[in-house]
Fold this protein.
Amino acid sequence: MSPIAERQLYIYNSLSGLKEIFNPINNNKVGMYVCGPTVYNNVHLGNCRTFISFDIIFRYLKHLGYKVRYVRNITDAGHLENDADEGEDRIAKKARIEEIEPMEVVQKYTVDFHKTLAKFNTLPPSIEPTATGHIVEQIELVKQILDAGFAYEVEGSVYFDVLKFNESSTYGKLSGRKLEDMIHNTRETSGQSEKRNPQDFALWKKAQPEHIMRWPSPWGNGFPGWHLECTAMSTKYLGKQFDIHGGGMDLKFPHHECEIAQGEAVSNCSPANYWVHANMLTLNGKKMAKSTGNNILPDEIFSGENEIMERPFSPTVTRFFMLQAHYRSVLDFSNDAMLASEKGFSKLMQGLSLLDTLDTAKETTGFDLAEWRKKCYNAMNDDFNTPILIANLFDAVKFAQYVNDGRKSITKEDLNALQTTLHNFVYDVLGLTKEEQEGDHYLEDALQLLIELRNDARKRKDFATSDKIRDELSKAGIVLQDGPQETTFTLK
Ligand code: AMP
Ligand code: ZN
């Protein structure tokens, strides 16, 4: 669909530290794996930022005409409290506290995750596999790593031998950490651990009697290590080597480093060609995180029920706020930043509406449409630079205002082309939605007027009129509720 020039996409590869030309393995097809959530809690806005960042990448690749298989997993077992293979399973712990089945925890928070991402208008992935649904594949992978000589078994657990791996490859190449430094900086565990070296990581863990999430394996009853599921599922659905692997910046180490080691151990090739990492959303300058409580939930923003915001903000404004920063930059969340984004978003939407009303002329003056379009693509082709794209979209809005003022003019043909390009970028690529916005305020005002007219009628004892208003609104799906102070309405 798009000319080839629009396809000169550059992606920043965390593995090389460089922006590289994107060349997929299979011409027009792209395989992308993104680490999904651990479903033991409601997703906070920080998590959402990472998934929105990859939604943009998914949308833009599709826009360029690629056939994308986007795999994003659900971690529903194996992620322990501590990333270094220690502590309780996060889901099992929540199940114990809430006195429910682990799978009830998984169900509850998977539903929350889907609902929340849908509010942000993110597209569903092509495949969303779960760790518990791929235990067989994970056990098979452990066997292969053992056969290749990169793992060892101790007392029903299997560990990846990092030092052995480092003899033929480099452990730490993604995160830039050196194994010698890691060894040097690790305190002696003086034989407390069954690992040969503290840097080794669990592929399979023996389940202690109190561990309820357990499966039979050749090494006894146990459960998979956290890093294993992503290698097993990415291999199953995308192959041993695929195009893009993504996740939040905090997953680089140890999670992605371990995935690379597992993949290379069995297939002698790096699992993904482009490693893409989205940067963190912060609150009060600190990373939003479930564990520290320094976070805000999306529903708290949409309802306004929180201590940070003066009032509610819609999902699409929140999405716009995120897209005004590049995905590799840290972004701080605040009331002021949201107010500014709301203003910007409404200006963009007004600009789009204005285009529908413009008069056309014999020639276009003061705007090079082809050049502008190129700039929009250049921005996205430069490692998905949404803030630059948005700045370009505002240039078009400014031009539309000049045409409206009579200071500039546009031909019918150019106007159509401008509208099409703007719609493509705003709705398809950035995934913004028109939202309730202005229209809804008008409707709400009209409804308030009807409520006042009904109350006046009741005061006059004109019940025929007051009942008519109530019944007709009810037929239209709007239910009035008379409280002691005021009349409110709900939608059926
Ligand atoms: P988790 O459920 O903790 O595994 O996290 C799911 C995703 O959210 C991972 O890709 C994390 O890297 C990402 N993430 C966690 N905290 C933040 C944050 N504050 N900002 C952006 N992404 C985050
Ligand atoms: Zn993963």
Q: What stands out?
A: The pocket of zinc ion (ligand 2) is lined by residues 35, 230, 255 (CB under 6 Å). The mean pLDDT is 93.
